[in-house]
Amino acid sequence: MSKPPERSPRARLIKKGTTSDGRSEDRARYPFDATEVPPSERFPREQKKVVPGLRERRASAASRSPSASPRSLRRPTISGPDQWGVLPDRPLFPAAQRTTKRQPFQRSEQKLPRRAVRRKRRARRKAVPPAPKRLTPEQRRQVEERYRAMLASGERPPEGRRKVIARELRLPYALVSEAVKNYLHRERLRRTNFEIEKIYWREILAGQDDARAIVERAAAELRLDPGRIWWWLEKLHEWRKALDTEPDVSEAQRAAILSIYQEYLKREAPPEKGLHLLISETIGDVTPRQVHKVLLQYRLSFWTQLKNTVRPDRVVA
What we know:
The chain is mainly α. The protein has a domain at 189-314. It is 41% helix and 0% strand. The chain is built from 9 helices and no strands. The chain has helices at residues 54-62, 137-153, 161-169, 173-205, 211-222, 226-236, 251-265, 275-283, 288-303. Helix 4 (173-205) crosses helix 5 (211-222) and helix 7 (251-265) packs across helix 9. The longest helix is centred in the middle third of the chain and has 33 residues, at 173-205.
């Protein structure tokens, strides 16, 4: 029988620092000229792969003569100006090339103090109170009194009465002008109503018993619409529920009230105060509502006796 082919023996690992005895199976895993590589320069594990042709290079390294000069695997340290590679033309540290000495610190010359400039203090403006949006009853009364005084004395300033009143009372011109307009309108109404009332009583005392005839006569004299005359006559004879609770006055007080009322009708213009308030202050023992109740009863005693006391536009056909 033939013997099986001999297998090549396994490669022996030689110890570090020893040489092979010439066997072909020895592999110079650790060549004699190899030096230990520091751990910092070892390759990572994934780079320790056997590359084709590596065994041939190891074999050629093992066949070298021991007389060959050992070569270190570590890169020799480089010292000198070339240790940083190719240096640029300019110095790496320019401050090191300075030859001039740094001058000591010197204070600049002391500047002359500027001439003190006196600053004028601005006068502190006083806070102007906000302009009122509406006049109070007291302010309205002052405006009306001043305007009546100007009318009585005939004073007519070149800039206008209303502007003078606004400057004197320190009020906005618009509010003063509105107060004067309302006063004139109210006075015009009062004067017109006063004239209607005078004509009404003149015709009543003259024996006229037709209300429509009285209205036509007053409208012709005052050049007003008859409806305006009817409106005021109905107001004069309109009863108020609040007067039911008012106590009655004595006969002497009633006679005094009617006497002052007759004098009132003889005036050329209505008084500044209201009729009821004027009579109440004159007598002193009655209230304005009591005066109103007495006068209303007196007027109704004549109004109910007149014919055609209903306005034509309110007659139901």
